[in-house]
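Table S4 entry, DUF2029 domain-containing protein.
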Amino acid sequence: MPPLAVSRRRRWPAVVVLLVVGAIGAIGRLHMLFDPSPLFYGTYDDGVHFSAALNLVHGNLLYRDVLFLQPPGVVVASAPFALLANLTGDATAFAIGRTVFALVGALNGVLVAVALRRWGPAAMLVGGTLYALSFAAAYDERTITLEVIGTTGILASLVLLDVASRRSARRWVLLAGVAAGVSIDFKIWYVVPFVVLALLAGRRIGWFVLGTAVAGIAGYVPFFAAAPSRMWGQVVLAQLGRPKSTGTPLDQRLGSMLGIASKDGTSGIPSLWGPELTPWLVGLVVVLALLALATPGARRFVALLVATGAVLLLSPSYFQHYAVLTAAPLALIGGVGTVWIADRVRRGRRIVLAVSVVAALLLAVSVDLRQVVERSNQKVAPLAALTAAADRIDGCIVTDDPTILILMNRLTPDLRDGCVFRSDPSGYGYVLTPPGGKAVFRPRNPVWQRSAMRYLRSADAYLLVRGDVFGLTPANRAIVRRDRELFRVDDLVIRSGGLTTRRG
């Protein structure tokens, strides 16, 4: 039997494995979404993405009318849920969108298993389970983020290239290129795995690149044609000009990629698996990579790991959700390496497989997801009281965090009334630079300080929820405290702004 052929006898175990992997991934991501933080709450980034989609469906074009520092893919993908907000309200539509993205994240684990199909159900189960239980993947894929569908595109491209290697039809290579191009529509960083996959296409690289070009044109050109210089400045120049973060050294980045807590506890990961385990797990990854290199057909997984790992280790800034970029390659080499070892163990692969899967499950259970979400999400706001207070304000309300207005069901009505709303008020710090043109962090950026204060105080009312994270200087925070309080709910205050932001 050819190595890629799968007999009827083995199809059913493969189907069962895919169902199990999908269920594990979905349960983990939905658990992080539902418990303990309410489904209707979120993080800053997903609020930015969803509010940008709300802006878009109300006629405000990305880059031209709305600052957005990423490719347009996540906003376009969120647009159906933004339209749904007209019927259900912002909060419910936001919750539905987050749930769908979490389920797509679970699908990524299934795609990892499919990519391992040639090595049998054992490899599929181990690799798929490793991805489904990966903290790096689950942390990112529990809500509306760039990397959810970006990872889907890369994994789909990998699977389609595998199909293309067994069939002569060029359309599979073309489709693989389209899938990789969709990833780049979501995040520029996916150019790196695209290059690796393009090289894997071999003599048909032209068809692969053509497919990527088609996806790129479809994703970028409609927005680029409307505002070419602004889109270039926001998506490319602003990212290249980000001030370098010195807060995440190499060992902490490696630990983050492997789901290990940082020394100072700032990673959001519980301390049960501390930094002392990092060198041991790095050594294990090296061994698995060497085994994959010795396995025909698996070297591409190592190439993906090396390429994506280099991006994370060399990037000027680093956040925990970046680690999802290496989660799939790690799971892939884990599946191949485990089966390689199992095939050479006297008692057969079943014992090794059982131990590996049980160990992975125990690792996931030991990571207290409740603690993770409590550390990574902001404090849950008293939404009912805030909403009641906001309903008494006849005019536009703005904020430093779009999520809060989404949860208050206030953003769609305000946009419908013509209010101007910044989906990413913090992001203006990357395009509004001080004299000299070099981006600096917001507390040291006088241009951004003036713009932020002008934006907040030009609305009828404003609400600050991010505290010091937003980056206002002590002098500007003092000005905020002097502005008239309209309503106070716990430690959150809706203050009077001034001039209306309504158009017309």
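The beta strands are 397-399, 461-463, 485-489, 492-496.
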